[in-house]
Specification:
The chain has two domains: about 200 residues, 2-Layer Sandwich (c-terminal autoproteolytic domain of nucleoporin nup98); about 210 residues, Rossmann fold, CATH 3.40.50.150. About 35% of the residues lie in helices and about 25% in strands. It is elongated.
Amino acid sequence: MLLTLTTTHRPATDLGHLLHKHPDRVQELRQSFGTATVFYPEASDERCTVALLVEIDPVRLARSAGRRTPDFSLAKYVNDRSYAASSLLGVALADVFSTARRGRSDARQAVADAPMPLEIRVPVLPCRGGPEIARRVFEPLGWTVTADPIALDDRFPEWGDSRYVSLSLSGDVRLADALNQLHVLLPVLDEAKHYWQSDDEVDKLLRSGEGWLTAHPDRELITRRYLGRSSSLPRVALARLAELDDTTEDALEPPEDEEALQPPARRASLNVQRHEAVLEALRELGARSVIDLGCGPGQFLAKLAAEPSFTKVTGTDVSTRSLQIAARRLHLDTVGDRQAARIDLFQGALTYEDARFAGFDAAVLMEVVEHVDPPRLAALERVVLATARPRAVLVTTPNREYNANYEDLTGMRHPDHRFEWSRAEFESWATRVAGDHGYTVELRGVGDRDPELGTPTQMAVFRRG
């Protein structure tokens, strides 16, 4: 199986930094079903191409395949899986480029955060439904799609086309988004998974689909084909996607962090409590203009926009897809001129100075700081508190001590968290930051309070001067 990815971003060799794979080296990575090899056929400032070659080891595949594995009867034989892209290529891609899929690059973070020109080619790809299906799933994501059918046999054109296509994609897309889309959509086009699907397949789908799957016009088709071997998992996934959608007035916050660990009946209450706590603090401060830094798909922005006392409401996020969803949630294409003048959305990274962050009564960082790499936290502090310098800053973040109340939790509350603070660590950080930048700080709790472990969310209210 072969996949190539090319960029003409200048310098194009930045691709090696983003993928965490050096262009000068060939790297072989063992998989349970074979070997994944990463190499660069070309690497110059003008153009850089990385190739992922996955070779199936029939013996290793047979030994790793259980009797519940799909296509078990063929598992001990070499068939088209050795040559045609499949879910096994998606598995290898997710493993080999795991850090790049999270959008992390210490050396080139600004490049990782932005769209870049990409060309992707998969020479042989099973595509049940033909080229039209490939266009349906990729074009709404901003790709230009070429899906050329492959003939059954060139010597006998009357036999027609096979179910395989040669797929080419081109577009300006953030690299992390492109990799996550491929991870999901390669098995969707094949409409098969070549390994046993457990309950965590829904979580994998939602993680890889974050920022694009919810708003995809064919999200139901994608979900059902991705989870097609199960009769129950698609229903679970579609129900959770419905929570993320904004087609109903009571749309919920994405089920992440502590919400995902609570019973469904309690998920909304904690989310609502957090929003209400921040809103109440903004009212106490008398804020008229508010910027939501890291606004995501705009759930909290919608609450700000609903209160006339906030005369200027602004949201910023590094994800353009999240901003598109936020714009739809706020109905910016249909609201009147007066309402539209109150609301502004723009793309920005919180670790880089931006004049548009300045001039607000209050800035909100709701469940944001824990997603920042610790070495870059000082940059965020400088950008927000030293340069933008709003009159007030509100920060919420998980309380690590409260994690003991979540029986099924291992590690941190979300796979993208870089750290989680105890109450003492949060207080120490908030006190230092306030002193460094001329603010006072008040600490509060959000959510049901445990007498020993505190509240699930902790909040700092910074006031300037």
